[in-house]
Specification:
This is DNA repair protein RecO. Keywords: DNA damage, DNA recombination, DNA repair. Belongs to the RecO family. Involved in DNA repair and RecF pathway recombination. One of its GO terms (cellular component) is bacterial nucleoid. Helix 1 runs parallel beside helix 3. The chain has helices at about 90-105, 110-125, 130-145, 185-195, 210-225, 235-240, and strands at about 1-15, 20-25, 30-35, 55-60, 70-80, 160-165, 170, 180. By secondary structure, it is α+β, with helices and mostly antiparallel strands. It has 2 domains: about 1-80, Nucleic acid-binding proteins (OB fold (Dihydrolipoamide Acetyltransferase, E2P), Beta Barrel), CATH 2.40.50.140; about 85-243, Recombination protein O, C-terminal domain (de novo design (two linked rop proteins)).
């Protein structure tokens, strides 16, 4: 049966001489793998450009629950980026978001709310001001956690001013374990947790070291709670690019 759905491209690997296998997070079916024949050619009709990481597509697919590999009948842009594919910093943030999402998506389960959040996040990043882009990875990582039952508790106070990375909440130093953020970093992180829309991120001024520490803390938080999460390959690039 043929279904129409939106999808966000997560990863593409070469297959054979001219084909690819694309991991796509779809609105209807969750994460799925699609074999796409004949896209790696020199033809002017080649569709390889559709399968860049973070691309948001509108696709018609053949879907069979019993198969691990599905097929795409038709595809077109659902949203054509203005900046993400050409701006080095925005592209690096998008690749971080894609990697984080892919590490969290373990099963091909439908989650329309998660899809819509991710879709909007990529579109917001595409049009974001530079001050917003710098803090965007932190915003995405904290918001994404909620969809996997890993909500970070915003309970910061003068007494609870150390962020406990393994527990995902703020505590006093006497109760903090060996994995916590210092008070100055914890304060800034607590402010970021209050952000409801990306446009608000420009009001929070962080230096490079604080941003790096928070992102590393979030990586550790996901490692504690997501099986086989592993180190993020895109994070060192972000540390260099985000001033």
């Amino acid at each position: 049966m043929i279904h129409a759905t939106k999808g966000i491209v997560l990863r593409t690997i070469k297959y054979g001489e001219t084909s690819v296998i694309a991991a796509i997070f779809t609105e209807l079916f969750g994460i799925q793998s699609y074999i796409v024949n004949g896209v790696r050619t020199q033809s002017k009709n080649s569709k390889a450009h559709f399968f860049q990481s973070s691309s948001i597509l509108e696709i018609q697919v053949y879907h069979n629950e019993l198969k691990n590999l599905q097929r795409i009948k038709e595809l077109k842009w659902n949203y054509l980026y203005k900046n993400i594919l050409s701006d080095v910093t925005k592209n690096s943030v998008a690749l971080y978001m894609v990697e984080l999402l892919q590490k969290c998506l373990k099963q091909p389960e439908t989650n329309a709310d998660l899809f819509h959040f991710c879709e909007d996040a990529f579109m917001q990043l595409d049009i974001a001001e530079n001050e917003v882009v710098a803090n965007f990875p932190i915003f995405f990582a904290t918001q994404l956690a909620q969809f996997f039952g890993l909500s970070i508790q915003d309970n910061y106070s003068d007494e609870r001013n150390y962020f406990n990375v393994s527990e995902g909440n703020f505590t006093n130093k006497s109760l903090a374990n060996d994995n916590f953020l210092e008070t100055d970093v914890s304060y800034h992180f607590s402010q970021l947790l209050k952000v409801l829309h990306p446009s608000e991120l420009k009001e929070i001024k962080l230096n490079k070291n604080i941003r790096k520490t928070i992102l590393s803390g979030l990586e550790n938080y996901y490692m504690f709670h997501i099986a086989d999460f592993g180190a993020m390959k895109t994070l060192p690039v972000l540390h260099e690019l985000l001033g």
